Amino acid sequence: MTRPEVVQRIRSYVDDNFLYAPGSGAIADDASLLTLGVIDSLGVMELLLFIEQEFGIVATDDEITEDNLGSFAGIADFVVGKSANTLEPAIADRAC
């Protein structure tokens, strides 16, 4: 999945689950969802569950940071980066 696709999917999830009226499009990709009050600590946990179910990405404790989960851009970078790291061992295994 591409970075723009991840951003769009996360925006859709945030619209459906955290905003009273759809409108995450007005939030900049790099804006802090925590500072804006869009999500709180419980929202971060819900978002982690969604990321795991939607993208198959499991965050370790040290990956649960505002850099990785605090903005649409951060989430997309985290998901795409983690997906790439997950695929690399599988590709290497097939080459052997």
Shape estimate:
globular
Major sheet summary line: none
Please report the first level of CATH classification, the CATH class: Mainly Alpha
What fraction, in percent, of the residue positions are helical? Answer: 55-70%
Q: What is the radius of gyration computed over CA atoms, rounded to a whole number of angstroms? A: 14 Å
Give the distance, in angstroms, between the N- and C-terminal Cα atoms. 26 Å
What is the percentage of strand-forming residues? under 5%
Mean pLDDT: 88
CATH superfamily annotation: ACP-like
Q: Number of helix segments? A: 4
Number of strands: 0
CATH-level-2 architecture: Orthogonal Bundle
Low-confidence stretches: 88-95
Write the element-wise H/E pattern from the N-terminal end onward: HHHH
Overall structural domain count: 1
Indicate the CATH topology: Non-ribosomal Peptide Synthetase Peptidyl Carrier Protein, Chain A
Task: Provide the structure class.
Answer: mainly alpha
Structure description:
With 96 residues, this protein is mainly alpha-helical. The chain has a single domain (3-95), classed as Orthogonal Bundle (Non-ribosomal Peptide Synthetase Peptidyl Carrier Protein, Chain A), CATH 1.10.1200.10. Helices cover 60% and strands 0% of the residues. It has four helices and no strands. It has helices spanning 3-17, 41-55, 66-69, 72-95. The longest helix is centred in the C-terminal third of the chain and has 24 residues, at 72-95. It starts with a helix and ends with a helix. Residues 88-95 have low confidence and may be disordered.
